[in-house]
Amino acid sequence: MALTREQMAQRVARELEDGFYVNLGIGIPTLVANYIPDGIDVMLQSENGLLGMGRYPTEAEVDPDMINAGKETVTARPGAAIFSSAESFAMIRGGHVDLTVLGAFEVDQQGNIASWMIPGKLIKGMGGAMDLVAGAENIICTMTHASKHGESKLLEKCSLPLTGAGCINRVLTDLAYLEIKDGAFILKERAPGVSVEEIVEKTAGKLIVPDHVPEMTFDA
Amino acid sequence: MALTREQMAQRVARELEDGFYVNLGIGIPTLVANYIPDGIDVMLQSENGLLGMGRYPTEAEVDPDMINAGKETVTARPGAAIFSSAESFAMIRGGHVDLTVLGAFEVDQQGNIASWMIPGKLIKGMGGAMDLVAGAENIICTMTHASKHGESKLLEKCSLPLTGAGCINRVLTDLAYLEIKDGAFILKERAPGVSVEEIVEKTAGKLIVPDHVPEMTFDA
Amino acid sequence: MAGFDKRVYSYEEAMDGIESGMTVIAGGFGLCGIPENLISEIKRRAVKDLTIYSNNCGVDGFGLGLLLEGRQISRIFASYVGENALFEQQMLNDEIEVVLTPQGTLAEKMRAGGAGIPAFYTATGYGTPIGEGKEVREFNGRHYILEESVVGDFAIVKGWKADRYGNVVYRDTAQNFNPMAATAGKITVVEVEEIVEPGELRPDQIHTPGIYVDRIIQGTFEKRIEKRTVREG
Amino acid sequence: MAGFDKRVYSYEEAMDGIESGMTVIAGGFGLCGIPENLISEIKRRAVKDLTIYSNNCGVDGFGLGLLLEGRQISRIFASYVGENALFEQQMLNDEIEVVLTPQGTLAEKMRAGGAGIPAFYTATGYGTPIGEGKEVREFNGRHYILEESVVGDFAIVKGWKADRYGNVVYRDTAQNFNPMAATAGKITVVEVEEIVEPGELRPDQIHTPGIYVDRIIQGTFEKRIEKRTVREG
């Protein structure tokens, strides 16, 4: 069975380490915050200028001056820091964020990522995504493995305009967890009940399949 | 009679305008602060990171965390701002300072200035002077017109290593007040009792002498 | 001694001198910390053919969206413009030129403009459409593109508190692009919620030193919320 | 959950990992806001062949002057080094290489290094010995030179207050080069006068967000004054 959005978030959360500064993109990446393992503390960076993002506010706490990069009202945890967007992207561009999680339309075996623009469709803009992928050394892409029509999104070469070149090293899809290295995807784990064959079939880029590909496990 | 240091500071102070942000270099420029005309308020910028420098502290006010660019203990006036040296030079380099007054070894008719280095002598460093002359549109150089040996310091071309190229437009010496324009010094005022002939004689660079060169006046 | 008293008392005075064809740099992120009354005054004046630098372009009927209604913007540098139906329409009709600019690059272009740095290298956008036509250079084995900075005819800024000298502090995430915008205007106008006496703001806690600021006005603000997300109390 | 507790309790621990041949970026201006105890610890460790980025080099017997005594510095990037007889002697003997760097350029090199900007253009130094051998480029009819940024193996910083997450505030003009230095170390060590609880510092008033900081130590400081100038009380 393909992973649910929640399971994808859960699986990504296992990559968190105690003391990580993490930037979570919109969508599934945002859900990761709900699955931070016990005993691990991470500090969430929001690129508008907030380090130490807290929970959503209660109705009484709502403050128009306190939003996150998704423009949602949020709170700051004790010990947070708030700063300008120039400072925020100084820390992003300068490689100070330990882990970035973001969605994508396509990823290829060279670590290229396309996530912001589909020619012919309305272009909304890249926001901070290009800075994030250029600045982070440690990025996890979350995406479905293939489109609704069964077309692979893990490609030999991205077909859409890039967000960043050669910057992605880990991908979590609804079917598998993969690493990208030396021009190939390496299959590290598969979703429960998903066969290696299905993953091979739905991966258009070069895929290296080790002898043993463990199945992910999730608490019931 | 050549101007005293105090008279030079007094004369420079007449160039101040109400609402000017001013950076005063070490030496005679520093004295300018003592002669700010009545009815005029200026804000002194100190390049280590202080806008709104106040007077020297009283013995009781001395604070090692409050110094100026000359490393002297100072105070901040009400409404001062204190910031990093990067921010300080952002405002200097970005042309936000209205007037810079600094000393020099030599100035030439192209507006070049040499103020930081005499080859063969110990080099102490340029500090913020190169940023100041590159960033300000409005600079007054204060200097003696000629060396003790009578050698002019207002040259056709600076002989010493430059602090900045083509950036000086006004010079106040102990003998005269001059502007620099289109490759020439223009004699605007002379010190009380100093003849045009003496100034001509002590100016090695191209000098334009108008028909009438008023004498500076000072209160007794 | 009026020299450093930068207060003005009407929005008309605050935006005095703005003309069609000018470049305006605006603070704000989404609808948070936007100079809403200064924008309304630009709308009222009906100046046209503006070039705007702003992370977003407001929403229909609020913020910079107001200037879209008046067809006052001919070009905008922004990182994200997806909140606005009118915008979409003008873009599809080629009534407005959109120069999509990565958020960090946009912030740095303003900061560099104010700081007298005409251009800088960044890895952001290398190998993407954003890097096309821009100089590429390698430093320490990595590729970077050259980005130029910007200075606007006007910068419009929203602060929290200011003194009459123009020293400004911002509140929480309403800071965002405002401090950089404030440095990058030939004329910088800041509207704030409260004007305090000089000396009330701690000098080493000022976000925008007054040297960058030409006019200060105290206003009242709607502070519209774009996405109200709440949890159970 | 020790993840963000960056406190260390000895200066030995604070400077753990520093080795001969490393590059160290130091905050401070003159003797104001210098990380005096971290410098003393480097002296104690007797590591050699250091490259230092610092606006000044202390005075005889205090601040970075201590490292001169130990002949620990082989190269220094500084804007002004004229306060120090030992320095003069080592320079004349070619025991130390001095790369004089304009003060604003030095500050920006650190800031850019921390911000992932490998190089930037500045008018500062164009047409002077500082510009020799550097790329010159014209923007809008003016000449600029290309300056590269710096990242150090260590950054040593003096703050006023910090929380255990490494959020730091600086006091008055002791801020100077410290915030930029803090961003530009692979390992950034901050010594402060007081460590407070997370939440005690107002989030929007923090000068150095904790993400830049690896270690925090509370110390006591001599805070020597270089030029005591006073007026009658």
Automatic annotation (TrEMBL), chains A, B:
Record Pfam families: CoA_trans (PF01144)
Superkingdom of origin: Bacteria
GO MF term list: CoA-transferase activity
Keywords linked to the UniProt accession: Transferase
InterPro entries in UniProt: 3-oxoacid_CoA-transf_B, CoA_trans_fam_I, CoA_transf_AS, NagB/RpiA_transferase-like
Family recorded in the similarity comment: Belongs to the 3-oxoacid CoA-transferase subunit B family.
Protein name: Succinyl-CoA--3-ketoacid-CoA transferase
Organism: Halomonas heilongjiangensis
Automatic annotation (TrEMBL), chains C, D:
Keywords tagged on the record: Transferase
Keyword Secreted in annotation: no
A single MF term (Gene Ontology): CoA-transferase activity
Source organism superkingdom: Bacteria
Presence of the UniProt keyword Electron transport in the record: no
Signal peptide: none
PANTHER family (UniProt xref): ACETATE COA-TRANSFERASE SUBUNIT ALPHA, KETOACID-COENZYME A TRANSFERASE
Name of this chain's protein: Succinyl-CoA--3-ketoacid-CoA transferase
